[in-house]
Amino acid sequence: MTRLTSLALISIATIALAINSIAGPLDKAKEAANTARDQMEEAAADPHAGHGHADHAATETDIATETAPDADSEIDSEVDADASADANADADVEADTELAPETPADDAVEVKDDDAHAAPAVTRAIAIMMPTEGETVRGSVVFTETETGVRVSATITGLHANTTHGFHIHQFGDVSKPNGKGTGGHFNPDGHDHALMDPTAGHTGDLGNLKSDEDGTATYRETFEGLTLYTGPHAIMGRGVIIHADPDDGGQPTGNAGARVSQGVIGVAGPALTLEKLLVE
């Protein structure tokens, strides 16, 4: 009897231990279930509850969105800046246009340009004298238009010492012939007889004589009322100039001045006439 009682007690104790070993996990499971139920109830009451990680991520995303520059916003800003710059440039152009003086019409500019390039009036001519074949006579003759007529100034070298030589304007400026006869006869538009520097008669081209010094150099200066450079029948531009071997004695038909020892052509003189240093003014 005593043995049976002991065995019964041992069995009861074993059963109790088994129940305790099962009850512990069950209690923990029950506690976990209750906790989950409480969280669900809290979530139902507050929609933001139970989303800690999600809310934190959402918050970081919102902060990044607010902090980081918006590409579209930057583009819009650049476009707005460009548009503003263009508007300012247009305004500057309009302001410059209003302040700038009016540009003259094309016709007016062209007339002004023509005036600027207009050739100055010719008041001086020159003939460079070159020796004819076998001669040494050379120099220059300058023709200057003045209020009283045309002044003729000459410096000639290569003449014989202390000699006199006929000096005339001839019809043509043709110096192609070596003997000087390409220049034709005396320039005589009025058809007068020859005379020695007679203002009322004689050939228009009669200039009288050159007289050389002991070195064979002749200088000359006379003014002629009947000559002009360009205008009228007495214009001498482009005519020839001849120096003769002998004196012009005033005889007919051309003064008996002999052969032609030097020839030249009357042309337009430059504004800075360096050869004039050689002439007697």
Task: Explain how this protein is built.
- It is a single chain.
- The protein has 281 residues and is an alpha+beta fold.
- The chain is 36% helix and 21% strand.
- It has 4 helices and 8 strands; from the N terminus they run ααααββββββββ.
- The protein has an 8-stranded antiparallel β-sheet, with no helix packed on it.
- The longest helix has 44 residues, at 2-45.
- It is rod-shaped.
Quick overview:
By secondary structure, this protein is an alpha+beta fold. The chain has helices at 2-45, 52-67, 71-99, 106-116; strands at 124-131, 138-146, 149-157, 164-170, 206-211, 218-224, 240-244, 260-268. The model is unreliable at 49-75, 93-101 and 103-112 (pLDDT under 50).
Keyphrases for this structure?
single chain; 281 residues; alpha+beta; eight-stranded antiparallel beta sheet; 36% helix
**Unreliable runs, pLDDT <50, ≥5 residues?**
49-75, 93-101, 103-112
What about the largest sheet?
A: 8 strands, antiparallel
The proportion of strand residues reads 15-25%
Element order: H for helix, E for strand:
HHHHEEEEEEEE
Q: Name the overall outline.
A: rod-shaped
Q: What's the arrangement of strands in the largest beta sheet?
A: 5-4-7-8-1-2-3-6
Which whole number gives the mean pLDDT? Answer: 73
| Cα-based radius of gyration, to the nearest Å | 63 Å
What layout of secondary structure does this protein have?
Elements: H1 2-45, H2 52-67, H3 71-99, H4 106-116, E1 124-131, E2 138-146, E3 149-157, E4 164-170, E5 206-211, E6 218-224, E7 240-244, E8 260-268
Antiparallel strand pairs: 1-2, 1-8, 2-3, 3-6, 4-5, 4-7, 7-8
